[in-house]
UniProtKB/TrEMBL annotation:
It is found in: Membrane. This is Site-2 protease family protein. SUPFAM superfamilies: PDZ domain-like. It is a multi-pass membrane protein.
Length: 339
């Protein structure tokens, strides 16, 4: 039951993303030939007035097929006939919808469940934080030079330190102070983690305004963390075997989130939605970001990039993405991430 809820939740993110492309295609007068949820063999389909709506076997993606998307078609309703700006609006609409979806979910979550702030409520005696001079009431502004938007920014910074000193910039009664702290490796629920020894303050019954503010801070934080994770993965500083999860891991974590209640599942889906948006906006062939780069080149040069080049680049990019997806899925099965 929980796994089914997880799969449905993950499918919802795909629907939200593709719905963004679909809506903006319609707004720009582009004919949509197919709206598909999932990939692979067709399970169900329905032919509308001009669009075929399909459900496919594997819930790992989806697509909106537009007239003239893959080749130039002399038709005023084709994707290829529209200006670069109009085509960019269609391409970016998927990621935009994922971000909007996350903003709504986060706001509802924080309004009903409250949230933690980066203000210290209590310092553990004889801990690294205590010895450094951190005090209750201090608000953490930066960690190792990076701006702090949420407590998770601090927690991740501490874990990435691997036990080396971390530098905190805090606000203490309007005065900024710099503190140097050496995290300590401790046992926490069966895992080895780095801690410095303090607790965060919490807003238990926030107003809608406070919830919205927390939502934007959370979103900015997650976008930054996602890009940072991708950078660590590319540079080899992130362990692919133990720290990277694919579709199988996402479904497992979603299932566990579903067991914890609808709010926990909703928060996790919003978290994945932000990650999905960021990943799609990467300037890589076959992704929305890659398409946007091509269209920006056309907009700046006022010359269309040859279809053969676009097709070849996107084909290679698509094959690389499929290969990466297969590798990550196999890795999920052989070396599952410890939850």
């Amino acid at each position: 039951m929980y796994i089914i809820a997880a799969i449905l939740g993950f499918s919802l993110l795909i629907i939200v993303h593709e719905l963004g492309h679909f809506i903006m295609a319609k707004v720009n007068g582009i004919k949509v030939e197919e709206f598909s949820i999932g990939m692979g063999p067709e399970v169900f389909s329905h032919k509308g007035k001009e669009t075929q709506y399909s459900l496919r076997l594997f819930p790992i993606g989806g697509y909106v097929k537009m007239l003239g998307e893959e080749e130039v078609i002399e038709d005023e309703r084709s994707f290829s006939s529209k200006s670069p700006i109009r085509r960019i609006s269609v391409i970016l609409a998927g990621a935009t919808m994922n971000i909007l979806f996350a903003l709504v979910i986060f706001t509802v979550f924080f309004f009903n469940r409250g949230f933690s702030t980066q203000t210290v409520s209590k310092v553990v005696e004889n801990s690294p934080a205590f010895e450094s001079g951190l005090q209750a009431g201090d608000t953490i502004l930066k960690i190792d030079g990076s701006k702090v938007f949420t407590p998770s920014d601090v927690s991740i910074g501490i874990q990435l330190s691997k036990g080396d000193n971390v530098n905190l910039l805090v606000d203490r009664n309007g005065e900024k102070k710099e503190l140097s702290i050496t995290p300590k490796l401790v046992e926490d629920n069966g895992s080895q983690v780095y801690q410095i020894g303090f607790y965060y303050s919490a807003v238990e019954k926030p107003t809608i305004g406070e919830s919205i503010k927390a939502t934007f801070n959370e979103t900015i934080s997650l976008v930054g963390q996602t890009y940072k994770s991708l950078k660590l993965l590319v540079t080899g500083k992130l362990n692919f075997k133990t720290d990277v999860g694919g579709p199988v891991t996402i479904i497992k974590i979603s299932g566990q989130a579903a067991k914890s209640g609808i709010y926990t599942l909703a928060y996790f889906l919003a978290f994945i939605s932000i990650n999905l948006a960021v990943f799609n906006l990467l300037p890589f062939p076959a992704l929305d970001g890659g398409w946007t780069v091509i269209l920006l080149i056309e907009l700046i040069t006022r010359r269309k990039v040859p279809d053969k080049i676009v097709g070849a680049v996107n084909y290679v990019g698509f094959m690389i993405l499929i290969g990466f997806m297969i590798i990550v899925t196999l890795k999920d099965i052989i070396f599952p991430v410890k939850l």
